[in-house]
User: Fold this.
Amino acid sequence: MDHLAFGLIAAFVVLYGVVSKRLQSTIISDPMVFVIFGFFLSSSVTGLIAGKDHILINIVATLALILILFSDASRINLGLFKTEQDLPKRLLGVGLPLTIFLGVFMGVMIFTELPLWQAAILATILAPTDAALAQAVINSERVPGRIRQALNVESGLNDGICFPILLLFISLAAASEVNHPASYWIHFIVFQLILGPIVGIIIGYVGGKLVLWAVNKDWMSGNFQRLSVLGLSVMAYFFADLVGGNGFMSAFFAGLIFGNVARQVSSPIYDFGEAEGELFILLTFMLFGAIMLPETIGNISWRYILYALVSLTLVRMIPVAISLIRKGLSTPSILYIGWFGPRGAASILYVLLVVDKHDFSGGDIIFNVTVTTVLLSIFLHGLTAVPGANVYASAIDAISDKKKDAEIKQVSQLPTRRSHKNHKKG
Assistant:
């Protein structure tokens, strides 16, 4: 990128910020606007950002995902998760595996040339949800708190859960195409799946205790409390990579432990996630529109669109419905949770990790389908977030209190992005 492109991006961030609050109550979402602006800068329109420059988007998306994994995990109160969050546990424990399984099945049905393990890679890339694409869904006061928290906690944990599954499928796919002994892949998986979490747990615990001690001593300013999020998350990523572990898993576990060890001083963590962290996420969407989208538009096919639509509907909604059996939820609630499972930043980085580091025979399919799915999700979920929340709230209001006991059950409200609600009942 040249100086003009950087200048335009900076100006756009400022100008969009001027009207950002006004747009929050409309059907226009931040990711939609940044993707459109990114495409405007792309080689397909103005040419200010060169096509196929994955290095730039990799850097931004990697940092964004590190911060997402750390900050989202830090919002999860493990004590409350064990005792109150029964819906997220169903969505993650039953719904997520079924989503991946159904995604694999549809992948091999639609793309008959795609090997099984590569279809599994595609399904796992598109399994994690991103609540940032539909903020009204989890921040609307009209939506019952229990439903909002189910989507919030699911989104905060499923990207971290999906990553080791993705690593496993990558190893199996590579083993089927590259002649390495089984011991090589066993060694790889063990190091990636064990060392990363260990490093993250150590850094999260020690860092949390250190920050908590410094705050209690009144030695640490609010600015540096916020910066500790960046320091600890990046430290967890690179130290894990240094010893052969997985940096993303390390960042996830570091955030999970840090948030629970230093729960009393957690507000600055959420402040960081709303400002600096949000900027990296939106830049990821902008670069998605500038670099990844032009590559796919020229190769679009009906099969990509079909899989994307199936992934956003049946592959998500059927497992959700199954996972919520006997939870007493009404049909509108099940449909609401099932529909609002948008795909975003995690899927963007996961596919870049796959196509840039592995030369799979189905790499083009995996890349193009992921881009198509994320693009449709950004617009479909963005456009339906506000009206969807309002329609759902009206449907719940019309149900008698006795029939909506499951929805209005009081649960502790865990913080969401752009929301500073503490753990109060709602």
Summary: Residues 363-398 form the longest helix (36 residues). Residues 3-399 form a domain with the Na+/H+ antiporter like fold fold (CATH 1.20.1530.20). The first strand starts at residue 412 and ends at 413. DSSP finds 19 helices and two strands in the chain.
